[in-house]
Design a protein that fits this description.
Layout: E1 7-11, H1 20-33, E2 37-39, H2 49-62, E3 65-69, H3 80-91, E4 96-100, H4 106-114, H5 142-145, E5 149-152, H6 155-159
Parallel strand pairs: 1-2, 1-3, 3-4, 4-5
C-alpha cells in the first residue's frame, strides 16, 4: 500500500548530545526507511539564538508532523525547548508523536530521579522540595500527555505511528 511521504520535524534534546551528528545521520536514515524526510534542527545554518529559534519555527511550519523525544532532560521533565516546539506544532494542528524510553508515571519518574518525599498532609505525593506532583497516572504532565500520541521506545517506534510504510 502506497503512503504519502511526510516531512517530519525531529524535536528533542538530541542536538545537545556529544554525538549529535551521528544521531542526526541515524535519524535521517530511519525517516528515509519509513518513506519520510527528516527535518533536523542541526541542518540549519543559523548560529545565533534568535536565528536558530526562527529557523526551527519555520521548519515546524513546513513539517507535516512532529516526532519529539520527551525523555527527561537535566532532571525529571522533558527539555523545555522541545516542549515549546511541541506546543507550537499543536497550535498549528499538526500531529505530534512523542516517545519515552520508560513506561512510568510522573510520580514514579520523580521518585526514580529525585526521590519522593512522604505524602503531604493533603494526601498528595510531593517531590523532595515539598511541591505537589501531578498524579493522573500519566507519563508526563497532562498538557503533553493528553494531546500528544505517546509511545514507549525510541524514534523508530514513534515513526511507526506516522502512517509510514513498515520500517525498521
Amino acid at each position: 500500500k502506497h503512503r504519502i511521504p511526510m516531512k517530519i520535524y525531529l524535536a528533542g534534546p538530541d542536538v545537545f548530545r556529544p554525538d549529535a551528528e551521528t544521531w542526526a545521520d541515524e535519524a535521517r536514515r530511519l525517516c528515509r526507511e519509513c518513506g519520510h524526510q527528516a527535518l533536523v534542527p542541526l541542518d540549519g545554518v543559523e548560529t545565533t539564538a534568535p536565528g536558530i529559534y526562527h529557523a526551527n519555527i519555520e521548519l515546524i511550519r513546513s513539517a507535516d508532523a512532529v516526532v519529539a523525544n520527551l525523555n527527561p532532560f537535566r532532571g525529571c521533565e522533558p527539555d523545555s525547548g522541545t516542549c515549546v516546539e511541541v506546543g507550537f506544532a499543536l497550535a498549528l494542528d499538526k500531529p505530534v508523536i512523542g516517545y519515552l524510553a520508560r513506561a512510568e508515571t510522573t510520580v514514579e519518574r520523580v521518585d526514580r530521579v529525585q526521590g519522593v518525599a512522604p505524602e503531604s498532609r493533603t494526601g498528595r505525593a510531593v517531590d523532595s522540595a515539598g511541591l505537589h506532583i501531578e498524579d493522573f497516572g500519566l507519563p508526563l504532565n497532562l498538557m503533553l500527555a493528553v494531546p500528544v500520541r505517546l509511545v514507549i521506545g525510541g524514534l523508530a517506534d514513534a515513526l511507526q505511528l506516522t502512517g509510514a510504510r513498515e520500517c525498521a
